[in-house]
Amino acid sequence: MKAIMFQGTGSDVGKSLLVAGLARAFTNRGLRVRPFKPQNMSNNAAVTADGGEIGRAQALQARAARAVPSVHMNPVLLKPQSEIGAQVVVQGRVIGNAPARGYHAMKAQLMERVLESFHLLGEDADLVLVEGAGSASEVNLRSGDIANMGFAEAADVPVVLIGDIERGGVIASLVGTRHVLSVDDAARIVGFIVNKFRGDPALFADGMADLAARTGWQALGLLPYFDAAARLPAEDTQSMTHDAATGGRPLVVVLAYPRISNFDDFDPLRLEPVVDAVFLHPGEPIPGTAALVILPGSKATMADLSALRATGWDIDLAAHVRRGGHVLGICGGYQMLGRRISDPGGIEGAPGEAKGLGLLDVETVLTGNKTLTEVRGVSCSASAAVKGYEMHVGQTTGVGLERPMIRFQDGRADGARSADGRVAGCYLHGLFSSDAYREEVLRGLGAQGSPLNYEHDVDATLDALAAHIEAHIDCDRLLALAR
Predict the structure, then answer these.
(1) Of these four, 141, 312, 317, 353, which has the most CB atoms within 10 Å of its CB?
(2) pTM given for the model
(3) Can 331 be counted among the known catalytic residues?
(4) pLDDT for 294-314, tens place per residue?
């Protein structure tokens, strides 16, 4: 096995996308490629075949490598629950909650698990593409680090540094990183890539040469901006926007409360040409023209329910339902639609209970046992095929379950619907990725038939990304640098 690591001068420089594209490119060359991210922080997670959860970006990278997602691809996942604390997931399993200071004290023990996953992953790989987290220049976090240079040193992996020219100051960010790193850490960097370039690459030729001279690192490529990246599942960016000049397409709104999770559920809607989809943020009212309002998942359901009420969305939802509008709740959003949510053990925050929105006749009690499983089934309203994954804590009961939303292949039912069918909720994430189910929902809103084949679109975009990278990055040199 060989490995090479990609770190950034900052967050959102394109590390995840670059690793996905390289994974597809090297897989297309016939290599067995595996993605690896020692530590990720995200509330967008994916369920793995081995019964755990990893960051959504690593699931996409596994798909790019045509590999089965594994908990070892992202051994430490942090899922923020507040401004100062997060749920800690290790090798796919929740081990507890920790404040930032408490987590820092855990990292020495976590390094053992990280290295274990790295070596297990490498047993079935020709090449492991490692992704760092945040910025390589956060030297205040170097002690005990498991995400960037700390891991690179422990695993003896060479590093490529990525800079983002779109945000400006790429020369300063790359050269500055070189100067704040220790001598040993800087020596571990074998080259750099400048990402998100727009315009004529010849105009930055002198800039690339200057960077190489100032840092002593090899220039491995100037990568033009890849516009089609917007068609791939997003891990950290809520990017749905609404164009007012729509020609009368149905409007779907998703309520982006503070602790929204798994908002990649709605990526297929973002690509749909037959509807308009938009995230609404606190302070923005639900438009009276909305055809469907979606309450997404949440990492802190009761806290987000309180935030929903504080912004007046509960009043807007009641008016929306009176007008005959549709409402869909997924996971935490489904729980909010019920009559009551109880958290006696403090699973998602302080113990307590909250009155729900009362739009579905169900109640939920949050429990310590987390359901993590991939499932297939059909919708109960029109028998449209649907697949996705469950990722939730809590047991939901009530007479509303007598009208389920989904029936799984194993005979289980999931979710609830109102008597008129306009309000529904379930625990199934990823359901809009199923073309037949998505078309059923959109036709119910009055939309015309859609030409979108979502899964094919994602794979075609990954192939285009790989070709884009092969054309602009010295991939042969990258392979030679891996060790």
Answers:
(1) 317
(2) 0.94
(3) yes
(4) 999 999 999 999 999 999 999
